[in-house]
Hints:
479 residues; 80% helix; globular; mainly alpha
Amino acid sequence: MAGEQKYNLLVKNTLLFAISNFSSKFLSIFIRVYLSYAFASPDVMGVSTMMQQVANLLIPVVSLGVSYAVIRFGLDKSTDKAGVYMGGAASIATGFGVLVLAMPLVRLIPNAADYLLLLYLCVLMSCLRTLGTQFIRSRMLNRLAAIDGVLTTLSLFGFYILYLNVLDLGARGYLLAMFSSDALSAVFVFVAGRCGQYAKPSHFDRALWWEMLRYCIPMIPASISFWVINASDMFFVQAMGGGYAGQSGDYWVGLLSAGYFLPQVITIIGTTFFEAWQLSAVTEEEDRPAFFSRVFRIYASVLFCCVAGVVLLCRPMMRLFRADYYEAWRMVPFLALSSMTTCLNQFLNSVFVVYKRSGFALYTMLSGAILNLILNYFFILAFGPWGVTPASFLSLLLVFVLRARSSRGLIEIGFQPRWLLLNLALVLAEIALLMLLQAWVLPVLGMTAGIIALNFREVWQMAKRLLGMVAGRLRKNKS
Length: 479
């Protein structure tokens, strides 16, 4: 696609997914605030979040990582769409069968035995929903994906009210709400996306399935490694945080979970962009190095500004939670940096997706996971439960560095390392001011303004494109 048209398409898809994400996932941010009042204590939130993370660990294993293959192979115009869909379904059926056989091992996971049936239902339904949503994206049904995002979040909120407030089911209600919401979404996408016409056993192509598995199976340990970096923090905190400041390990897990409140804004922005970007990254073949470099600079600028804003707002915004969650603000700054680095790692992973080099994703994430396990242990000993947050950031930073180096053999992206390091240094200085000063407001506000000024040009470029796209839509609707 020539000239500016490919950038306009990327902005158009980003805007479309923003309609879904900022109306659905933005609502999910405040769902976490609601949960702080719905649960009896931070301990209950801690147990609930732990079970959700167990499900997140099992999902890539059960699906055999096939969601990556469904969208990558589904975007290939020469590939039979029904064959891709049936290959995805076969992968989930195979993986879930293995999970059933592995039930004795799953029961050994802390707390899992008490919630085993609900865990299995959540895992299966999440896999089926992901198959459907990735498949409709591969067919460029982006509006349907946006609608599904909104409806799924609204139904999740409704099920939370039913199971937590009305029926008072606690952690079981939390898992049951996740299952119910994913089930409704899976059915909606299957019907509205007309997936039934592709669910044809006769179109199952063994050769295509094996090709899909060869591509996505290396993603399984990569996904597990990503889980280790992000979710193992909670298991370390639960195991090592008991007794710290007179609180239980589950209490500190609950605070850590609440600490993701504001960084989730960064994750939403990253997810919104990435859902649009992965379509452009695969389909746009003209002048890829310049395309990737320009988009990376703008994307990183937006993320650094968001991190600076989150650090500025973390203390006052934590007042929205119930009073016993306020100290979770200490978790927020490095969680924000971790969210930003995760988004940048996703961007670089798109390089491996384009060139079908999933092995690179594996070794980079595995390296980060090993470092995270080591740092979690020593940082908790040194700093207490909040030490897991800088450990996660440093581990994800290692992944970014390794991916940046690995991508050089595939595509030349202009990372501008001095500019990246300057931004990072300013954010770290802002965090230090927040943590060390009692009168922190004006110094942190000044540092935030400096970071925004440094990145203003790139952010304004993105804003102008988005505003121009919205204005064009409004003029079109009026006419």
